[in-house]
Amino acid sequence: MEARRRLLAEAQWELIPLRNLAEQLPHLPPQSPVSVTASASKTLEDTLDLTAELCSLGHRPVPHIAARMVASRDHLEELLGRIESMGLSEIFLVGGDVTSPAGPFDSAVGLLEALREVTHSLIHIGVTSYPEGHALITDAVLHEALHVKQVLLAEAGIEGHASTQMCFHPKAIVEWLTAERDSGFSLPVHLGIPGSVDPSRLLRIGSRLGVGASLRYLRKNTGAVARLLRPGGYDPSGLVDKIAPHADRLDVAGLHVFTFNAIADTVAWRDAALAKNSSHRKRARGV
């Protein structure tokens, strides 16, 4: 139960820079860890604008930087300078979903290599991982890229973690992570899960901008779509319950919750799950 409580308590909320977010921001718990997406339908400057707003509200945002949306080495340095000016030292690095790179970086690996040659104040970088596969990239390529990212971070002296795609199948997650640990992958892992998502919101936002590999994955996995589109939304508690017993052994450090900007409902789900956890602990102690 302690691992389950830890995962829930340390959840990071992923937000999308859309206009519908303003009405939901007041529902974020104080000083929340927040992940700010980089969408192909927006710009990286939009991502950093929302990051700055979240800083002003007292939260702890981590901006996504999509390598394929960085137009040049100068653009990269501008982005890093703005991040530093906010007092931040962490980013989440993704390849990006644009069809053609805007500049010289066609992958997260390429941008990680470039970071060794520019001045920055980053001390932590999150990278992507795919326990349930990627719609466009083979498992072998994903495996190799993940280990290359780990090596590049170590060579740069930068701490890191891997955050997964939006996942649904606990058996696949445990088998994937066990195999990666056995092959030398040692970065902490944050498990990506959907929040308590209203079906109409999911379809509306997904059709407007997609959410990277996760939405491509959903298009190819109708069972996952069915789970998300249940009346009342998807409840991720079952997935968390099944992963929690493995969390310490496999170094699952936290949850990365895809809110689709449904902050109120998703935070309410998390708080109810924590309350349930507390109730179980009290019963176990005979209180």
Describe the structure.
The protein has one domain (2-281): TIM Barrel. The chain is 47% helix and 16% strand. The protein is built from 11 helices and 8 strands. Strands 1-2-3-4-5-6-7-8 form an 8-stranded parallel barrel, surrounded by 4 helices. Helix 4 packs parallel to helix 5 (139-156). The longest helix has 22 residues, at 263-284.
CATH topology type: TIM Barrel
- Average pLDDT, to the nearest integer? 87
Give a quick account of the main beta sheet: strands, pairing sense, barrel closure: 8 strands, parallel, barrel
End-to-end separation in angstroms reads 16 Å
As laid out across the biggest beta sheet, the strand order is 1-2-3-4-5-6-7-8
* CATH top level label: Alpha Beta
Multimerization status: single chain
Count, helices: 11
Unreliable stretches:
207-214
List keywords for this structure.
287 residues; alpha/beta; TIM Barrel; 8-stranded parallel barrel; 11 helices; globular
Question: What is this structure's SSE topology?
Answer:
Elements: H1 2-9, E1 12-15, E2 33-36, H2 44-56, E3 60-66, H3 73-85, E4 90-94, H4 108-115, E5 124-129, H5 139-156, E6 159-166, H6 170-182, E7 189-194, H7 199-209, H8 212-220, H9 222-228, H10 237-250, E8 252-258, H11 263-284
Parallel strand pairs: 1-2, 1-8, 2-3, 3-4, 4-5, 5-6, 6-7, 7-8
Helix pairs in contact: 1-10, 1-11, 4-5, 6-10
